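Session log. Operator J.P. requested a structure for one protein chain; no other inputs attached. Running the standard single-chain path with token output.
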Amino acid sequence: MERTTLAAGACATAALTGATLASNAVGLTRLDLPRMLGTSLTGDGRLARALGWGLHAFNGVSIASAYRTAWRRAGVAPGARQGALLGLVHGLVSLGYMAAAPRVHPRPAAAGLRPFAPAAYGPAWIPAMVLGHVLYGAVLGGLLAGGRRRVDAAPAASGAIVVAGEGHVTAPARQPHEGVGHPGIVVRPSARVR
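Structure written below.
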């Protein structure tokens, strides 16, 4: 897995985690994700929470690779909008898991799982879960899009090589002078990177 994808996945996971903790803090949700994940591995409550946080972080970073693979196979460049769309799908799949979790989790009572219902885990747990995943995807896609650059195949009229991306002009095009026969380099901002 690429380091860029790992780092972006860690940032996206932090955003999702922050949104989840905020939703819990204001009473929109009561879902204890680390407990739910950790109790799938052990019945020891304290150990389960620690393992759950670790599993949550691992899932978030590794799922970033699945997003990256989906974009590559679809021939779509990552971006915040594309990430949000994939996050919406991810959120809906997560809801499907939550519907099945009380029946497939090895310790549903210890995990605090309830039958699937609109208010099972708080008054707004369903939109909070879906929007958290949309946020995850948008952050991931936005971060992965931020590092892209391309080099125009045809040099500019001045003989400069043009590098397009999200940057500032770092070196103006220069005409060769005093016997130096190399072109200058121009970096120009580009809203759309191919």
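Operator note: Residues 45-74 form the longest helix (30 residues).
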